[in-house]
Amino acid sequence: MSVPLLSALIFFPIIGGFSLLIVKREDVQAIKIMALIISLLEFLLSIPLFYMFDKTTFHMQFTEHYSWIPAFNINYSLGVDGISVLFILLSALVTILSILVSWESIKDKVAEFFISILVLEGVMIGVFCAVDLFLFYIFWEAMLIPMFLIIGIWGGPNRVYATVKFFLYTLVGSLLMLVGIISLYMHGGHTFDILELAKHSYPMGFQLLLFVAFFAAFAVKVPMWPVHTWLPDAHTEAPAAGSVILAAILIKMGAYGFLRFSMPILPQATQAMMIPMIILSLIAIVYGAIICLAQTDLKRLIAYSSVSHMGFVTLGLYSLNTQSVEGGILQMINHGVVTGALFLSIGMVYERTHTRVIKDYGGLATTMPVFGSFFLLFTLAAVGLPATNGFIGEFLILLGSFIRSPWIAFFAATGLILGAWYMLWLYQRIFFNPVNDKVVGLAELNMREIVTLVPMVILIFWIGLYPNAMLSFMHVSVAHLLEQVHGGAEVARQVATVLH
Amino acid sequence: MIDTAFVSWKAFQPILPEMFLVCIGLFLIGLDVFAPKRRELLPWLTVVGSLAAMIMVAGEKGITGFGGMIQADSYAAFFKVICLLGVILASLMSEHSRRTEGLKQGEYYALMVFSAVGMLLMVSAGDLMVLYLGLELMALSVYCLVGLPRNDARSAEAAMKYLLMGGFASALLLYGMSLVYGLTGTTDIAAIATMAAKGDLLRNAALLGGLGLMIAAFCFKVAIAPFHFWTPDVYEGAPTAITAFMSVGPKAAGFAVFGRVLFTGFPQFQADWGTLLATLALLTMAIGNITALSQTSIKRMLAYSAVAHAGYSLLGVLSGTAEGLSATMSYLLIYGFMNMGAFAILVLLAGPGNRRESLEDYKGLAKTNPLAALLMLVFMFSLTGIPPTAGFIGKFYLLKAALAAGYTKTVIGLIIFSSISAYFYLRVVRYMYMSDPKEEITVEYSPGISWVLGIALLGVVGIGLLPSSVIGHAASALLGQ
Questions:
Q1: Which residues pair with B65 in a beta bridge?
Q2: Within a domain: residue B67?
Q3: What DSSP state is assigned to residue B296?
Q4: Chain A interface includes B400 (CB < 8 A)
Q5: Cβ pair B403:A186 closer than 8 A
Q6: Contact A51, A24 (CB under 8 A)
Q7: Are the CB atoms for B428 and B380 separated by under 8 Å?
Q8: Domain annotation covers residue B261
Q9: Mean pLDDT of B116-138
Q10: CB A168 to CB B430 under 8 A?
Q11: Does residue B370 lie in a domain region?
Q12: Cα–Cα dist A80/A86, whole Å
């Protein structure tokens, strides 16, 4: 592969974003159209990844490698494997949708907004492509700048508080990880190459320290209980596009970090920390779900449901067997699709009513029936109804965690029941119940909005009915990952049970 | 070796840039006196002169002169470039600010050049006497610069404070030097180390005391707590361009002697000064960052931030390794770019009769002046140390060097305090982008300020994306080579 596809994917939206500065600031329509075209081209550019990806190898593909800072042995090296490839596609898709959903709602500093979104897209893709820890860290931190601006400038009334909280939480976690990265560099043969670092073995005490350092960064991002408190604020105050990107991509990066760094580089610590991580995940699942029941704010409810759902993801990852890890990765995508779709929908209805308080709604199904159908579908996917994508992910995770211990699966399943409760109750309060005065006469979804939601519907059923479309990307990479964690023996046994 | 009967021109080669700058300074005074109508040329001549000097020093490598009194090595060359960069950017800034601050005196630029001569001497001093000479030349010029706006009470107060405190620091330095000289019998920095080893002075309390006094004086010069108390007042009172200059040039020169004296003169004492400086670094970072949180004047905030950054820079020196020293050097260069950039925005926004130094004045800047706000945003993120800006590269290098030297606790301190610093740097961004404007500020991009902003932006983004250039140079710039 001679075309530097990954670099193109990273830098095309960034350069494209800044090229919006050329357009006259007053010509808002041109800026929007240009931003949309850039994001569409980016998506087209990412499609080869889907078709040309070799599913039979765990090795990095589409690799690029240039020396960047030779003094520190830092390289600009990129590559994707079965774990990361899908997130790049998802990022490209979600960016289009978030540009579409912002079409009418962003009225102030329009050029800056779309620049931020596009730059954020490039940087996010960079996070998933980086094979050099230093490069990864650059992208990881650089992401903070556009997101800080998106929440802080175009967010809700309490946006400044939310964005500063988001920034500081993430920064503290990331800086601890930076110390970890540097120590890893010094103990791992003076390299930042992830694959090289994974080949070394480190003493147990050092691994545990590093695990904590990485945990600080990744757990904040996921977010795991008890460092989740920035998420509800950030989600609630962010503009619709910000919430969508936050839910669909940004918080996945924490889980991705565990998969890409903590597990392969620190296998013994990963096994030692398995039980604590599972316990934290279970707390997140149940706690997040219970908190959801008490929410009065629409966006806050979905934000807390993210805490619960991401608890499932980390539970899957740290149950450390094939089913659960694949389920975890799939659930990351599912949560991105479903919660992304929910935030898109909420953004659309908020544009009409300018309220997020659940009490202000009621009987919306009579005024906006099409919207009601879409929202119902997303609700059911979030609950995990069979034939939707949510079911597959949760099922695999429960299966995998049941192999660990039935009790884990038992507590996790409690979260599912609570999930059905709060989501269906939410649907009832908004769409059924007596018609609230505030929703009388609301306009039905327009064509642009329907177009925005349809891709999510397609993904929900595509993954729900034919999960192998996504799972087939992961099999080999996940098997390799688990081999690194367990050192071979147990994996062989598990693969055998799955195959028979 | 100096031949007293016949001094060849070759003997002056090590101080050629300094001599050249003295000529420039004298020429500036002459021009000011004899051709007062041509005064607007002064800043540009300063820039051209410093640029020429910079080209002269850039190639210096392993030159010693005057029997080792002058060490024009690659280490000195790196610092000289930083100092001259400070002069260039500050004169360009002054070219703009003289319109608003009404600084008409021609001595202004000459003083800046003379202080540069002092800094150049300081960084290449191989002998304590030359070091002191350079330090005083620099300090006296800067005292005058701070107090140059005679009719401004704030400046006068700042100059007075600076002079008194500076005199105190000089006294400490001299006292320390005399103790060291008394025990080792030499003022040659390299010879101190050999004499200390020979004379079995490694645990001598008086020598340690002398070293401590010298460290205290250096700490004063680079604003390390608890010797930083002059910083906020002087920085606030001085003309903004001079504040910017002080935070880059004299600070870099101070760190240069810090490094040279400790590394060449007292390498056997690394365990002592390493521990002492680690404590001071933590204290400095804490005081600088925490006090900056509560400032309402942006100039004062940047003054405390300068204190904090001095604490970060110290991390490289205290680690006692060549890598650490290189890290400090790159950090000072990077800090020069980003801090100059931030101060340039202050200069840009200041109007006649309204300095706009309050944080409140930055509210809604993104709406009234999108370009200025964007530049300030870049500089603030860089000062916080967020990639892909140069500020991150600098911090990363420092962290790496200090971790390699085993100062893990100090590193954790840096992490904690730089997270705190994010809050006040980002407050500027918040005010600019997330508040409504109070007044319509019209700014005029004069050629001088445009150059400063351009160079600073190029430095911050360029080093951020392609750090190799700077890091490579810093890593190969070694003491005595």
A1: B70
A2: yes
A3: -
A4: yes
A5: yes
A6: no
A7: yes
A8: yes
A9: 92
A10: no
A11: yes
A12: 9
Task: Find the helix or strand (DSSP H, E) in which B281 lies.
Answer: helix B270-293
**pLDDT in the model for residue B117:** 94
- Mode of pairing for the β-strands spanning B63-65 and B70-72: antiparallel
With an 8 Å Cβ cutoff, are B418 and A175 in contact?
yes
Question: Which residue type occupies B339?
Answer: N
List the Cα angle A140/A141/A142 in 5-degree steps: 95
Contact check, Cβ <8 Å, B434/A148: no
B415 and chain A in contact, CB less than 8 A: yes
Q: Cβ of A138 and B388 within 8 Å?
A: yes
In this predicted model, what pLDDT tens digit does every residue of A205-252 receive, in sequence order? 888 888 999 998 899 888 888 888 888 888 888 888 888 898 889 888
**DSSP 8-state class, residue A56:** T
Tell me how close the Cα of B313 comes to any Cα of chain A, in angstroms.
17
- Cβ proximity of A443 and A48 under 8 Å: no
Q: How far is CA A236 from the centre of its chain?
A: 17
Q: What is the pLDDT of residue B50?
A: 92
Decide if A155 contacts A239 (C-beta within 8 A). Answer: yes
Q: Give the closest residue to A52 by CA, choosing from A122, A121, A5, A11.
A: A5
Total domains, chain B = 1
What is d(CA A418, CA A285) in angstroms, rounded to the nearest whole number?
9
DSSP H or E segment with residue B71: strand B70-72
Residue B216 structural domain:
9-476
Nearest by CB to residue B415, choosing from A70, A138, A176, is A176
Could you tell me if B419 lies within 8 Å of chain A, comparing CB atoms?
A: yes
* Angle at the Cα of A496 from the Cα atoms of A492 and A499, rounded to 5 degrees: 135
Min Cα distance B402 → chain A (Å) is 10
Strand-pair category, A61-69 with A74-80: antiparallel
pLDDT at A107 (0 to 100): 81
Query: Where is pLDDT greater, at B7 or A153?
Result: A153
Using one digit for the tens of pLDDT, what is the confidence trace for B150-207? 888 888 899 999 999 999 999 999 999 999 999 888 888 888 888 888 878 888 888 8
| Number of Cβ atoms within 10 Å of the Cβ of A299 | 22
The number of residues making up chain A comes to: 500
pLDDT at B69 over 90: no
| Whole-complex ipTM | 0.84
Model pLDDT, residue A500: 52
Residue B1 lies in a domain: no
DSSP state at residue B226: T
Its pTM stands at 0.90
A69 has a chain B CB within 8 A of its CB: yes
Tell me how far apart the terminal alpha carbons of chain B are, to the nearest angstrom.
18
Q: What is the pLDDT of residue B301?
A: 92
The pLDDT tens digits of the residues spanning B192-212 come to 888 888 878 888 888 899 999
Tell the residue number behind the tokens 């204290």, with chain if given.
B283
Instruction: Please answer yes or no on whether A141 and B392 come within 8 Å at the CB atom.
Output: yes
Q: What is the pLDDT of residue B6?
A: 56
Distance, in Å, from the CA atom of B183 to the CA atom of B269, rounded to the nearest integer, reads 15
pLDDT digits (tens, 9 = 90+) for A270-306: 888 888 889 999 999 999 899 888 888 888 898 899 9
Return the residue matching tokens 């404070």.
B161
**Contact flag B426-A69 (C-beta cutoff 8 Å):** no
Q: Which residues, including other chains, have CB under 8 Å from residue A116's CB and lie 6 or more apart?
A: A17, A146, A149, A150
